[in-house]
């Protein structure tokens, strides 16, 4: 068992800064090399430290993996929100503008994380649940301000579920024409929703 005083220093401002620095490096490695063969030792090499230092700052390899995936998702969401803000216009146009970000840099790793959650839900279900918690506030914020909470939630969940389906289709079949047809239908549905 770790000495409580020793472990407490990990929560100091300096300890938190070090933890963020390590997490950034591990997330970068994950973004380049994916989840296959992820281990504490590989993470330590990527972070330029030892596995013991990582265990000091994280609650084991699964916690480190989860935190690194969350970090990659935060990056992806930031890029998607930026693309949507630059696009402006209708909700449909902003959602469509997010697609290149969703299939772009580091996206394959995040899709692997969802696959892990489906493959071994007992260990990795939180990776899928956390994706919803991370994306829904962004999608809710994109909905018109004059919509009530229930309507915003329903539309945000529709968008999230549809985009997840498109991502699975993209990764498994690469059917760009099918995804484009789906986007056309989603765009029409969102435009009708905004007009009512």
UniProtKB/TrEMBL annotation:
Record's keyword terms, sorted: DNA-binding
Cited SUPFAM superfamilies: Homeodomain-like
Transmembrane domains' residue ranges: none
DNA-binding region, residues: 39-58
GO molecular function: DNA binding
The HTH tetR-type domain, residue ranges: 16-76
Record-linked InterPro entries: Homeodomain-like_sf, HTH_TetR
Name of the protein in question: HTH tetR-type domain-containing protein
Source species of the chain: Kribbella jejuensis
């Amino acid at each position: 068992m770790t000495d409580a005083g020793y472990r407490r220093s990990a929560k100091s401002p300096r300890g938190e800064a070090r933890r963020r620095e390590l997490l950034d490096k591990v997330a970068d490695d994950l973004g380049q090399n994916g989840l296959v063969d992820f281990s504490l030792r590989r993470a330590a090499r990527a972070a330029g430290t030892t596995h013991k230092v990582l265990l000091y700052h994280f609650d084991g390899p699964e916690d480190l993996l989860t935190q690194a995936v969350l970090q990659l998702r935060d990056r992806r969401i930031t890029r998607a929100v930026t693309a949507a803000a630059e696009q402006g216009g209708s909700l449909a146009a902003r959602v469509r503008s997010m697609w290149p970000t969703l299939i772009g840099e580091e996206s394959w790793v995040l899709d692997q994380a969802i696959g892990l959650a489906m493959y071994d839900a007992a260990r990795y279900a939180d990776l899928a649940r956390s994706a919803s918690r991370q994306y829904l506030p962004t999608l809710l914020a994109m909905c018109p301000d004059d919509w009530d909470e229930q309507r915003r939630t329903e539309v945000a969940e529709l968008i999230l579920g549809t985009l997840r389906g498109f991502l699975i289709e993209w990764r498994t079949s690469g059917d760009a024409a099918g995804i484009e047809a789906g986007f056309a239908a989603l765009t029409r549905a969102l435009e009708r929703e905004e007009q009512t």
